[in-house]
Amino acid sequence: MAGATRVRILDGQIELARHPRSYDTGQTIEDPEHLEGLLAATRQANAHTTRDRLRVAVPASATLFDRLAERGEPLRPHATRLLALRDDYGPQELAAAIAVALERDALGAGSITHILETRRRQRGLQPPLRLTLPDRPGLRDLDVRSHDLESYDALRRHPDDESRD
Asked: Which residue in 1, 40, 84, 125 has its CB near the most CB atoms, within 10 A?
């Protein structure tokens, strides 16, 4: 509902927002309280999104989060760190580490990091390289699935190579 000096947003009879009216083209008028509320809601949604992405990639993470919650642990720092570990080590390796952590009742992201590092060193593998992305909204939330690189080796093979083996 718009008047000469004010714009109101209504849901039936309930006023959701009220702003001064502007007749200037391209002007954006924002209420700082609305922005704070949006930021708080976004933070809350992102925490669930992070846990949901982990749950899809590593189903055992749901059990891990349940057990962390039973202990009264804040879940957000663990979820953020585990998502980074998934990116660094891959979902299969993270799933194996979470299984070991659940078995040992060593549930924190720090313990899982230690398990992953120990497994990496035992295999003689190099540490994962960290990909640094620009700090642009939405970019860090992209979910890029890693693929088995051996499938690319098949592209280099010629049919004659197999008969020589």
From this structure: 84
Which tokens sit at 122? 């035992």
For residues 130 and 150, give the distance between their C-alpha atoms in angstroms, rounded to a whole number.
Answer: 21
Give the integer Cα–Cα distance in Å for 62 and 97.
14
What residue has token string 């003689």? 124
Question: Cα separation of 139 and 146, whole Å?
Answer: 16
* Residue 127 · residue 120 · CB < 8 Å: yes
pLDDT at res. 33 = 75
**Contacts of residue 15, Cβ cutoff 8 Å, sequence gap at least 6:** 8, 9
Measure the CA–CA gap between 94 and 85, rounded to whole angstroms: 7
Query: Tell me: the pLDDT tens digits for 3-33?
Result: 888 888 888 888 888 888 888 887 777 777 7
Other CB atoms within a 10 A radius of the CB of residue 96 amount to 17
Nearest alpha carbon to residue 33 among 50, 47, 17, 15: 17
Structure confidence at residue 22 (pLDDT):
81
What CA–CA distance (Å, rounded) separates 74 from 141? 21
- With beta carbons less than 8 A apart as the criterion, state whether 62 and 55 touch: yes
> How many whole angstroms separate alpha carbon 112 and alpha carbon 81?
10
